[in-house]
Design a protein that fits this description.
Radius of gyration: 24 Å
Number of strands: 25
Largest sheet: 8 strands, antiparallel
Helix content: 10-25%
Structural class: alpha+beta
């Protein structure tokens, strides 16, 4: 295990990253190799993997078992759930999300990448860029992940040939450019053999770039939200009404972005009532300033009707409220999303009734063309939707805030998550078709 000290960690930055790729491209093996070669695996963990590998008749440890924890994952040799791992080097701390490759688990990839600053997309050097590669690249673009690493894996099975790597890198980079991904770094690797994962490969002297770990340690971390639009969704109203605190009324929540200060003028949305911050409690102690991602309690000068789901924002930087939301979505449920579908929309800590008024387009992943007015989105489809909500919501553009610019659509009957949405612009959107749905049910 690494001997990194607390003092060293306090001086390092945190990088959240996710792995993605098609089935059997080697994501879990890459993660296992990364943990093993960076000495981030405990001795008893490695011994358990060695025993499990020997029991399956393998001569060498199967490092994928370090992340594939479900019995079904180990039996099938695939990843099903998102596996989160925490490790550190002297240069940086990491939170890693190993996401599944199967199409039916696309929702898990959306979950893992939604908070990532970097996504590692693996490609099998023998197969090149496939449909699932394009799907994961499109999701990374829609989620506005600022950095993408293309890891061309299994280079040992193609004789470590540079032309194979170059052709795949060129095809993927061109596709990523069309998607608007700002930064792509291509690295040839063999996760099984350890080439260019932590240590440079002796088999690919034609490659002069960084290893995967070197790039992860040096890529700019773009997770600092303290200078973004300040937003705090109210999660709980604290009013003890005790002898010690007879008049205490605080509004608790995690700051989604930005900074709040005592004395600052704030507005509560969607009501639009304005007041000032009289105090901020952090871990039971008063502070003058608080910032994301701290969980705090705000005390306000005026008694305002505030409840869970309201959003506290600076008065000078308040987002508009609207009942009409247009967004790019990834549909994750098995049942299709259709025009006229009545749903619940969860934005921050508020959940409201809503209706799908239009589906202007569906994205074709092969060539990034738009199929206009498909009428519905099937499982794993990416498209544009227009939603009308029963109550006004203060939404930001996803380009400005990944926290307050996102939402999910929920089945009101059983609570199933249907769709993950990102508010605002995306690839493009054709003119909407006139809504022919009736006025019955949830129509606002």
């Amino acid at each position: 295990m690494s001997t990194t000290t607390t003092e060293e960690l306090s001086a390092t930055t945190l990088l959240r990253f996710a792995t993605a790729g098609s089935v059997d491209d080697g994501k879990s093996t890459l993660v296992g190799r990364l943990l093993h070669d960076s000495k981030s695996v405990l001795v008893d963990q490695l011994e358990a993997v060695e025993r499990a590998s020997a029991g399956r008749g393998q001569d060498t440890p199967d490092l994928a078992l370090l992340t594939d924890g479900l019995r079904a994952e180990r039996e099938q040799g695939i990843t099903i759930d998102v596996a989160y791992r925490y490790f550190a080097t002297p240069r940086r701390r990491f939170i890693l999300a190993d996401t599944p490759g199967h199409v039916q688990y696309t929702r898990n990839m959306v979950t893992g990448a939604s908070t990532a600053e970097l996504t590692v997309i693996l490609v099998d050097a023998r197969n090149g860029v496939v449909e699932q590669t394009r799907r994961h690249a499109a999701i990374a673009a829609l989620l506005r992940v600022p950095h993408v690493v293309l890891a061309v894996n299994k280079m040992d099975l193609v004789g470590y040939q540079e032309p194979v790597f170059a052709a795949i890198a060129e095809e993927f980079t061109a596709y990523a450019t069309e998607l608007g991904i700002p930064d792509v770094t291509a690295i040839p690797i063999s996760a099984l053999a350890g080439d260019n994962v932590v240590d440079p490969s002796s088999h690919m002297d034609w490659y002069a770039g960084p290893t995967v770990l070197e790039h992860l340690e040096t890529v700019p971390a773009a997770h600092d939200l303290t200078h973004c639009h300040a937003r705090m969704p109210v999660q709980y109203v604290i009013r003890p009404q005790s002898a010690e605190h007879p008049d205490y009324r605080g509004y608790a929540g995690q700051i989604a972005a930005g900074t709040f200060r005592v004395g600052e003028s704030v507005t509560v949305l969607p009501s639009g009532r304005a007041t000032r911050i009289a105090g901020i409690d952090l871990l039971g102690e008063p502070v003058d300033v608080a910032w994301t991602p701290q969980s705090v309690t705000l005390l306000l000068e005026d008694d305002i009707d505030i409840s869970r789901g309201d959003l506290i924002v600076p008065s000078k930087d308040a987002p508009p409220t609207t009942q009409d939301i247009e967004a790019t979505v990834c549909h994750v449920a098995d049942a299709p999303l259709t025009v006229g579908h009545r749903v619940l929309l969860k934005h921050g800590t508020r959940t409201v009734k809503a209706i799908v008024k239009d589906i202007p387009s569906r994205l074709t992943l092969d060539d990034l063309s738009l199929h206009p007015h498909p009428g519905q989105l099937a499982a794993n489809d990416i498209g544009r939707v227009k939603v009308r909500t029963a109550e006004p919501l203060p939404v930001d553009s996803y380009a400005d805030s990944r926290r307050t610019g996102s939402f999910i659509l929920i089945d009101p009957h059983d609570g199933t998550t249907l769709t993950a949405g990102m508010v605002g612009e995306s690839f493009a959107s054709p003119e909407p078709v006139k809504d022919e749905t009736g006025d019955d049910g949830w129509d606002f």
